[in-house]
Design a protein that fits this description.
By secondary structure, the protein is mainly alpha-helical. The chain has helices at residues 15-22, 26-33, 60-71, 85-93, and strands at residues 50-52, 55-57.
């Protein structure tokens, strides 16, 4: 008698599993976590992680919340360079 056992979702995902869930490469997820992407490229904040020994683990709920936060526009583009005259006048008038 071989009963079909339901597949239980893991409580914690490895870095490669988490990368597959959010649709990026494991190397990109590592660079986000280690802050190796220059600020000039305006990287998003890394998803929350848990360190178990030397391994980094991710909770599926945290990954979903991170994705939802990205969709809501919580990460905005940083404008670089000098402000325009209109921006300067607005700032001085306020």
């Amino acid at each position: 008698m071989s009963a079909i056992q339901p597949k239980i979702a893991p409580l914690l995902l490895s870095e490669s599993e988490a990368a597959a869930v959010i649709g990026v490469s494991p190397a990109y997820l590592y660079r986000l976590r280690a802050k190796l992407i220059p600020a000039s490229q305006n990287p998003p904040p890394p998803p929350p992680y848990i360190m178990l020994g030397k391994r980094f683990k991710y909770r599926p709920a945290d990954l979903q919340a991170w994705i939802d936060g990205m969709a809501e526009g919580s990460v905005r583009a940083v404008k670089r360079g000098r402000p325009t005259k209109a921006e300067t006048q607005r700032r001085l008038a306020a």
